[in-house]
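FORM 7B: Structural annotation worksheet

SECTION A. Query
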Amino acid sequence: MSDPDVERALERLLFEGDGMSRRRFLGRGGAAALGLTALGSALAGCSIQGEAAHGVNASKPVTIRHPKASMAGMVWANWPLYIDEKSLKTFDKLHGVKVKYVEEINDNFEFFGKVRQQLAQGRDIGRDIVTLTDYMAARWVRDGYCEPLDKSNIPNIKNLASNLKSINYDPTRTYTLPWQSGGTGIGYNPKKTGRKLESVNDLFDPAFKGRITMLSEPYDSACLTLLGMGVDASKAKIDDILKAIEKIKQAKDAGQIRRFTGNDYTTDLAKGNVWAAVAYSGDLVQLQADNPELEFIYPKEGSMLFTDNMMMPKHVAHPYGAEVLMNYYYEPEVAAKVAAYVNYITPVTGVQEILQKTDPKLANNPLIFPPDDVRKRLYAYPALTPAEERQMQSAMADVTGA
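SECTION B. Predicted structure
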């Protein structure tokens, strides 16, 4: 495939599809957009002009210094409905600036498609902070598309939750700083199942035949299944993942799984069409407001943890300002306002104690503030090569029929 053909195909794929909600793509439904299509297979054998061919060893120590500089003209690209904007206005007043906050990330791959050529050509992409989900953040780190953080400008990094201080693609958080997280577990209605659920393997109970849904995204469903098989999904190899996908295939062939979904599982779960579903913790916070019968569990074997990360693109125009902004959002009082608005898992310690005084119900919600024993069972995505990721997506597509 020639380079112009690749470009046109990417544009059709990335920009002409149906509009999707942020919540679906926060759950990485966008990963399928590239991996589960014929285009994904075609791209496997193509090189794109200007694409980075080098790798970055994120474990290697990096010394960086971003001196104090003007913060005028800063731009932050984030997902829709993912911040308390009053907090940003307060930042503007504190520093006498006007941060341009752009809700332009609806899908990790779509956003990458917008800026890929600039990154590959070593140009500033016009954003000082981008907020990307783990698997895409890993790609940017690996390909050298991120500017290292000058942590002397982010003293509040000391408030980063202990379970997030390291991740497989960025062991020392040299390039990434968590924005918000969520868990992938099981949402269900105990009145339908007739009992409490506690295990990943409850999804395969024949008593629930035809009343189960799984997410079509293998980073979620296959990795969660792996946890039920006793495998640490964060360290899984491609062969492990393929075994989990085979288990899912057998369940599908047996009629156990009603269908594979994106975020639309929420409708079936709320209506009672399905009794249990692989689900995102943040969704259940919203669903329970309308249907208190619904429950969410972090299975005893563990849950997958997805995190959206603040990152500075390579050749960023305002690195000092971006770091000052990151530091501001790691103040517990500020992070508490964000947590109260978005209802996802905050990465900042001390927030729960603040909300105990202002909103005890929220502070005691385990979907937003998982207890310590649950946090220990939250697993990051495995670090796969691009070829392994395509292999995983292709195998899952064969099962889901995508």
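SECTION C. Observations
DSSP finds 18 helices and eleven strands in the chain. The chain has a mean pLDDT of 86.

SECTION D. Sign-off
Analyst initials: ____
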